[in-house]
Amino acid sequence: MFREHRTEHELVRYIKRLESRDISLTTSMISLGSCTMKLNPTAAMIPISFPGFAQIHPFAPPQQTEGYRQLIGRLERWLAEITGFAACSLQPNAGSQGEYAGLLTIRAFHRSRGQEQRDACLIPASAHGTNPASAVLAGMKVVAVACDEGGNIDVADLRAKAQSHAARLAALMVTYPSTHGVFEEAIQEICGVIHEHGGQVYVDGANMNALVGLCRPADLGGDVCHLNLHKTFGIPHGGGGPGVGPICVAAHLAPFLPGHPVVATGGSRATGAVAAAPFGSPGVLPICYAYIALLGSSGLELASKTAILNANYVAERLHPHFPVLYRGARCRVAHECIVDLRALSKATGVENDDVAKRLMDYGFHAPTMSFPVPGTLMVEPTESESLAELDRFCEALISIRQEMREIEEGRFPADNNVLKGAPHTAQCVTADRWDRPYSREQAAYPTPWTRAHKFWPHVGRVDNVHGDRNLCCTWPAAAGPPAAFPLA
Ligand SMILES: *Cc1c(COP(=O)(O)O)cnc(C)c1O
């Protein structure tokens, strides 16, 4: 690429070409649930390019980093206040790394009390995959806790497991609101059960977008939680940029916060470093600092309330067309909702893959697929989207439901229809030959807004499973022919 693009014009065109193949927030809302793809305010992001922030080495002498340390210190205090905890470490570079660091502080705490044997970690079946992975990395043994038919933690099963592992119980990892997008009403009781049996409660704070300013993980009964600054606090993610997954801990765990061999940080009896740099990725912290400072406490609270309101709006609009899988006791969701396609898939043969691909024709990125429930879509609108955009997204899904109905009614074959044929590239709909049972217009311009601004998917349907199993490495022609390494 560098050999081919020798002028600024060529490089700009190359970058623009790549960008045009990406369906991003510059086109439409990204509804990925559990990922919190919220606004990354430009005003908060510009400062990270200032030389004072951008050109400091992580091991610069302390007299050169006074400003940075002030920013880090303030941010730690704000995050501790938001979560209700006593202390904070900004060292972990991702939520998953925060989980690992948090579990290490729990292990160190147990060890400090002569309870080395506590190594069992209870994790609900609905948990994010990083939870069991972190527990194993931290040297713990995972004990799965069942969920009931409402998607909530099965408290009886939790009690039984806590009891039978009481002598070895180290921790519970719990996400609140749950990965099912529901405020579980038993959360305080759940934390109480773990404490009764000598365990610590790790709160997975990835869903803090529904909590900030409204309630605090410490008040729920947690001992430690991580935050995903790249989800809840305005740092961009999903493009491979650095994440930040700080942990906040109660006073009894503060002495064990991660230290660093070169720069003094962490607790008085610090565990080892979990990242190479003492403060993780401080280069992106000014975004989070500006986000909190600009919103203030009332703004943060309003953001959480709006995120919850938007999710409930989407759930209500979609429910007559697609069942929403889990809701709380008052029939409300938290900040995201799971759209259940499974019954429709059975009736029509249309899978959630097909809906996800078809959304591209409508100009939308797919929601989260098959997490946490296989065969479903999880939608998180966040506080950042306008009512008009939420409506446009819901109307796309409702229109897709209509397309499914036409298959149900036998107007199109189950294996050859506008959903199975999606996404449709410009090349495919303008080709001289067209032998599909639906019209080209229906394929490419299913709604009025696609006429005003059309996003053209660059590649048609691919075989996902084949692609996942057959990693293909290609070299420029000069270096020899491309080679493929099937992984399976
Ligand atoms: C995103 C997420 C994580 C992991 O966070 P990363 O920053 O991606 O490592 C953990 N738990 C839940 C519920 C999440 O949504």
Task: Quickly describe the structure.
The protein is of the alpha/beta class and about 500 residues long. It contains 17 helices and twelve strands. The chain has helices at about 10-20, 40-45, 50-55, 65-85, 95-110, 130-135, 155-165, 185-195, 215-220, 285-320, 340-350, 350-360, 385-410, 425-430, 440-445, 450, 465-470; strands spanning about 85-90, 120-125, 140-145, 170-175, 200-205, 225, 245-250, 335-340, 370, 375-380, 470-475, 485.
Summary tags:
globular, 17 helices, Aspartate Aminotransferase, domain 2, binds pyridoxal-5'-phosphate
Task: Describe what you observe in this structure.
The protein is of the alpha/beta class and 488 residues long. The chain has a domain at 46-291: Type I PLP-dependent aspartate aminotransferase-like (Major domain) (Aspartate Aminotransferase, domain 2, 3-Layer(aba) Sandwich), CATH 3.40.640. The protein is built from 17 helices and 12 strands. The strands form 3 sheets. The chain has a 7-stranded mixed beta sheet with strand order 1-7-6-5-4-2-3, with helices on both faces. It has a 3-stranded antiparallel beta sheet with strand order 8-10-9. It has a two-stranded antiparallel sheet with strand order 11-12. It starts with 7 loop residues before the first helix and ends with a strand. The model has no long low-confidence stretch (mean pLDDT 94). It binds pyridoxal-5'-phosphate.
